[in-house]
Design a protein that fits this description.
By secondary structure, this protein is of the alpha/beta class. The chain contains twelve helices and 17 strands. The longest helix is centred in the C-terminal third of the chain and has 22 residues. Bound molecules: pyridoxal-5'-phosphate (PLP).
Length: 390
């Protein structure tokens, strides 16, 4: 019997190694892996460039403490600020630490300008910002909060698509609006560009901060470094994680100079492991690849091809696939029925995908995916649709 807590419904399969888009299981089978650790392994499994970076750093220094200067972290923060809206970066180790820190940054900003009562965060109902005691209340889903009382106050909600409801939910206590530009766990629901722009305008008008959670949709997954770049908006605070470490745990919160006003004092926030030299070296290596000329252009090009091929399948099986969703390589196939059996059938055909809300089969190839691997995925999805039809 496993000594691991049973908080996961684990598939009965384990892997001994991976290479790029593929995983090699202990049962001898080879799988096309379009889960990639749930949008984490942005450069695929066992990427030689990342292996080299981690090998090199591991021989020098793993951990030191934020009580000292960490040049690798200075470098990564500088690169992130040079390439994005941000002026400051605070490193964490995971997505939820980054979203937590984002909320702290927003609240502390208003505290520092003499408005401590402006501390409520407005989120989308049934979104996903992580699993700590406060982020489950930010996400606002009954399933996540049930049994974990007492309720952590400070979060209000509006429904996805209910733009009138959003305006009504803003009060003089609202400090920030926090949304995922593309809702990952919730079922690859894309917030339209016009609405992101409207959010920015509302935040400006009401003098509140805009937090865009790019933990899942960021770091090149959408075909742009940040998915909100499509809308040409400038947020105040952005939590990131997942793809930033290419498989090594990293989180961070990026912020403008203004948003950082309250947190820019020693002792306001901290993390023992956050920003350690090993993580920072891997993060820099990930950026070396993603910032390479043509890298994101290629993500856009290959994802366009993938979307077109998936839409062809949807047309062919309109009673099975309701919608093809997503941007870039953050893709969802929304089925008419529960997706469990479909995902199992894909796996029986050596193709790994993962569920999301709304009957969605989530498809997350590495950003270095090849056309022939997409063709293999398309072939398997076609085959499974054919079997599923019967
Ligand atoms: C949008 C978003 N925010 C936050 C998180 C939490 O990240 P982590 O699981 O690394 O704590 C996730 C994880 O799926 C996410 O998708």
């Amino acid at each position: 019997m496993s000594a691991l807590a049973k908080n996961y419904n684990r598939r009965k399969i384990a892997f001994k190694r991976g290479k790029g888009s593929f995983l090699y299981a202990t049962n001898g089978k080879k799988y096309l892996d379009f889960v990639q650790g749930i949008a984490v392994n942005s450069l695929g499994h066992a990427n030689p460039y990342l292996i080299n970076a981690i090998k090199k750093q591991s021989k020098k220094l793993w951990h030191i403490s934020n009580a000292f200067m960490i040049p690798e972290g200075e470098k990564l923060a500088k690169r992130l600020t040079q390439k994005t809206f941000a002026d400051f970066v605070m490193f964490q180790n995971s997505g939820v630490e980054a979203t937590e820190a984002a909320v702290k940054v927003a609240r502390r900003y208003f505290y520092s300008i003499g408005k401590p009562n402006k501390n409520r965060i407005l989120c989308i109902k049934n979104s996903f910002h992580g699993r700590t005691t406060s982020m489950i209340y930010a996400s606002g889903s009954k399933k996540m909060t049930e049994g974990f009382g007492p309720k952590i106050d400070g979060f209000d909600h509006f429904k996805f698509g209910d733009y009138k409801g959003l305006k009504k939910s803003i009060s003089n206590k609202t400090a920030a609006i926090m949304v995922e530009p593309i809702m990952g766990e919730g079922g690859i629901k894309v917030i339209p560009n016009w609405f992101l722009r409207d959010l920015r305008k509302i935040c400006n008008k009401k003098k509140i901060l805009l937090i865009l959670d790019e933990v899942q949709c960021g770091i090149g997954r959408s075909g742009k470094f940040f998915s909100f770049e499509y809308a040409k908006v400038k947020p105040d605070i952005v939590p990131i994680a997942k793809g930033m470490g290419g498989g090594f745990p990293i989180g961070a919160v990026l912020m403008t100079k203004k948003a950082a006003t309250g947190i820019n004092f020693p002792g306001t926030h901290g993390s023992t492991f956050g920003g350690n030299p090993l993580a920072m070296s891997v993060g820099n290596a990930v950026l070396d690849q993603i910032f390479k000329k043509g890298f994101l252009k290629n993500v856009k090009k290959i994802s366009k091809y993938f979307h077109l091929e998936l839409k062809k399948i949807q047309k062919k099986y309109p009673k099975i696939i309701k919608e093809v969703r997503g941007v870039g390589l953050l893709i969802g196939l929304q089925l008419f029925k529960d997706q469990t059996k479909f995902i199992q059938k894909l796996m029986d055909n050596n193709f790994l995908t993962i569920r999301a809300g709304d009957n969605v089969v989530r498809i997350l190839p590495p950003l270095i995916v090849k056309k022939k691997e997409i063709d293999l995925a398309i072939k398997i999805i076609n085959k499974v649709c054919e079997e599923y039809k019967k």
